Automatic annotation (TrEMBL):
<dbReference type="InterPro" id="IPR005119">
    <property type="entry name" value="LysR_subst-bd"/>
</dbReference>
<dbReference type="Pfam" id="PF03466">
    <property type="entry name" value="LysR_substrate"/>
</dbReference>
<dbReference type="GO" id="GO:0003677">
    <property type="term" value="F:DNA binding"/>
</dbReference>
<dbReference type="InterPro" id="IPR036388">
    <property type="entry name" value="WH-like_DNA-bd_sf"/>
</dbReference>
<dbReference type="InterPro" id="IPR000847">
    <property type="entry name" value="LysR_HTH_N"/>
</dbReference>
<dbReference type="InterPro" id="IPR050176">
    <property type="entry name" value="LTTR"/>
</dbReference>
<dbReference type="GO" id="GO:0003700">
    <property type="term" value="F:DNA-binding transcription factor activity"/>
</dbReference>
<dbReference type="Pfam" id="PF00126">
    <property type="entry name" value="HTH_1"/>
</dbReference>
<keyword id="KW-0238">DNA-binding</keyword>
<dbReference type="InterPro" id="IPR036390">
    <property type="entry name" value="WH_DNA-bd_sf"/>
</dbReference>
<protein>
    <submittedName>
        <fullName>LysR family transcriptional regulator</fullName>
    </submittedName>
</protein>
<keyword id="KW-0805">Transcription regulation</keyword>
<comment type="similarity">
    <text>Belongs to the LysR transcriptional regulatory family.</text>
</comment>
<keyword id="KW-0804">Transcription</keyword>
<feature type="domain" description="HTH lysR-type">
    <location>
        <begin position="6"/>
        <end position="63"/>
    </location>
</feature>
């Protein structure tokens, strides 16, 4: 007996509902009524012969079968979208120039860049890793097509994808040589840096003495110094290496108060060619999926 083919539109609705936090939001995004989305759910439940969602409070949550289907749905849709992009991009060429901070260079973003390369193999991708202010300046001069930036939501070209709180980051337990009451050893970027400013302001407000033991122009140097136990740093959780951990009150550090840092994509206010627009969409989808899954990192 031939297996039924899962409806791609229904799979896309399910994944969108997971990303947006509910079927009401998904219905609004795809321009369908709540009843139409409910019919889609019933249809796919009939296809697979399983209950995929159950009521919880005023909403629905995935059952074990529903969670399994969502895993496969994301893979199916990704392959579908890559196939269409690849076919349409066979005649494409040229170069897409992307700028991004070091926070993203060594962790999950390379998978996005790999996906882009598979989808548009004839397009040359140039990735520049640098500090936010340098990347934004290069974008405004027309030297970059896209920039993934932190704390640049005030710009008119910003597509804000997420707002992330600051966290204290330290090495594994027992590696930091510091006793409460002594100046807190800090590993920071050299100024100007908004993470540095936030760290010092929080410590001053809490009345905690501090000393900067190392400054680095790049985040890789900061991670290496913190992992070695030289000190702690303050950044956002995205890009946190597995060898480091979030610190809290039990570790003697104050709550890093203040406005969350915005993560945003920028195109300089210019019309993007199709290849750059595809990369723009890939990055946006990856960030939404990452946030819906939770930012991993030891804690």
């Amino acid at each position: 007996m031939q297996s039924p083919n899962l409806d791609m539109d229904v799979l896309r609705t399910l994944v969108l509902a997971e990303q947006l936090g509910g079927f009401v939001h998904a219905a609004g995004r795809i321009g369908r009524s709540q009843s139409a989305v409910s019919q889609q759910i019933r249809k796919i439940e009939e296809q697979v012969g399983q209950t995929l969602f159950r009521k919880q409070g005023r909403g629905l949550v995935a059952t074990a079968a529903g969670e399994t289907l969502l895993v496969y749905a994301r893979r199916i849709l990704e392959l579908n979208d890559e196939a269409l992009v690849a076919i349409n991009g066979l005649a494409a060429g040229g170069t897409v120039r992307l700028g991004l901070p070091g926070d993203f260079a060594d962790t999950w973003l390379p998978a996005v860049l790999g996906r882009f390369n598979r989808a548009l193999p004839t397009v040359r991708l140039e990735a520049v890793v640098d500090r936010n202010r340098v990347l934004i300046d290069r974008l405004d001069r027309g030297e970059l097509d896209l920039v993934l930036a932190i704390n640049q939501a005030h710009r008119p070209d910003a597509m804000v994808m997420e707002r992330l709180p600051a966290i204290w980051i330290g090495p594994e337990p027992g590696r930091l040589a510091w006793n409460a009451g002594d100046p807190l050893p800090l590993v920071l970027s050299d100024p100007p840096c908004f993470f540095r400013q936030r760290a010092l302001a929080v410590l001053e407000e809490a009345g905690i003495p501090w000393r900067v033991v190392l400054t680095s122009p790049g985040v890789q140097g900061i991670w290496a110094a913190v992992e070695a136990g030289l000190g702690v740093t303050l950044r956002i959780a995205i890009g946190l290496p597995p060898a480091l951990r979030r610190l809290g009150a039990a570790d003697g550090v104050p709550n890093p108060t203040g406005e969350p840092f915005a993560l945003s994509l920028h195109d300089g206010g210019r019309a993007l060619p199709p290849s750059a627009r595809q990369l723009y969409d890939f990055i946006g989808e990856a960030v939404v999926a990452r946030m819906s899954a939770g930012i991993s990192g030891p804690g």
